[in-house]
Amino acid sequence: MSHEIILSLNGLEQTLQVISGKFKNWKVWKIKFKNGEEAVLFKHMDEWMQRHEDRLDHKTITAIGKQIDLINNDISFA
């Protein structure tokens, strides 16, 4: 499933494409930035994590994770 989210950090807004998928037994979220960069996030317990090679800062991971949680809540109660 694909979604677009607006991420607002440090006074800047950017639109990200978020695509949910599966890797082994994990639900993962592929994030595509406007500049072509990509990252993969997954949630372990209550903490959002990334692949080692993505190198996003903790603040960015947390902000994207909050938006993904909102998407998940909308899907659950729709």
Key words describing this protein structure:
26% helix; five-stranded antiparallel beta sheet; 78 residues; 1 helix; alpha+beta
What is the gyration radius calculated from CA atoms? 12 Å
Largest sheet: 5 strands, antiparallel
Spell the H/E element sequence: EEEEEH
Share of residues in strands: over 45%
Q: Pick out the low-confidence regions.
A: none
SS element count, helices: 1
The tally of beta strands, per DSSP, is 5
First-to-last CA distance: 15 Å
Helicity level: 25-40%
Shape: globular
Structure overview:
The chain is α+β, with helices and mostly antiparallel strands and 78 residues long. The chain has one domain (2-77). 26% of the residues lie in helices and 49% in strands. It contains one helix and five strands, in the order βββββα. The protein has one helix spanning 58-77, and strands at residues 2-9, 12-23, 26-32, 38-44, 47-50. A five-stranded antiparallel β-sheet has the order 1-2-3-4-5, covered by helices on one side. A hairpin with a 2-residue loop joins β1 and β2 (12-23). It is globular and about 35 Å long. The model has no long low-confidence stretch (mean pLDDT 86).
Layout of SSEs?
Blueprint: E1 2-9, E2 12-23, E3 26-32, E4 38-44, E5 47-50, H1 58-77
Antiparallel strand pairs: 1-2, 2-3, 3-4, 4-5
